[in-house]
Design a protein that fits this description.
With 160 residues, the chain is mainly alpha-helical. Helix content is 59%, strand content 10%. A hairpin with a 5-residue loop joins β2 and β3.
């Protein structure tokens, strides 16, 4: 199933290539991939969420469609503020990893930096009761993001 989800994600991203938004019909995508429309819903929910930098708009019935919009913040400061707001006082590991992947896709962090960030916020690194992990993860993650964006302001970019 993961292979199908990967294929659907890749297909949608190829359709978007240079576009900031596209409209697709859920049933047509399902037919194209030989799957149920619920599989398309699953991919949209898990691979095209706000954490991944997308907004999904859906209209059902009568030739309904799904509009996928790539969020484009006007500046890096706006992106940082949006991310800090999203993280808030607590963030789970999956959401934090999705944000890191989004930053890597936008070339704000490189592969090495993304790996270090994921290691720092992983459940294994945070030896605390479950209720406290998301709060500590959010604090650590907010600090990492603020440093990443300070580095961008200072022109410090390390492409690997």
């Amino acid at each position: 199933m993961a292979q199908l989800s990967d294929s659907i994600e890749r297909f949608i991203k190829e359709l978007m290539d240079e576009e900031t938004q596209i409209e697709v019909r859920r049933n047509e995508l399902a037919q194209h991939f030989g799957c149920a429309p619920s599989q398309i819903n699953y991919v949209l929910a898990t691979r095209f969420s706000v954490d991944h930098g997308y907004i999904i708009e859906s209209r059902r019935g009568g030739g309904g469609y799904v509009r996928i919009v790539r969020m484009c913040e006007r500046s890096e400061e706006n992106l940082l503020n949006a991310l800090l707001t999203r993280i808030g006082n607590a963030v789970d590991e999956d959401s934090a990893c999705a944000i890191i992947a989004h930053l890597q896709d936008r070339k704000i962090v490189n592969g090495r930096e993304a790996s270090l960030m994921r290691a720092a916020i992983s459940r294994n690194a945070l030896a605390l009761p479950i209720s406290a992990k998301d709060v500590l993860r959010a604090a650590v993650f907010r600090n990492m993001l603020q440093q990443v964006f300070r580095n961008l302001e200072g022109g410090v970019r390390h492409d690997v």
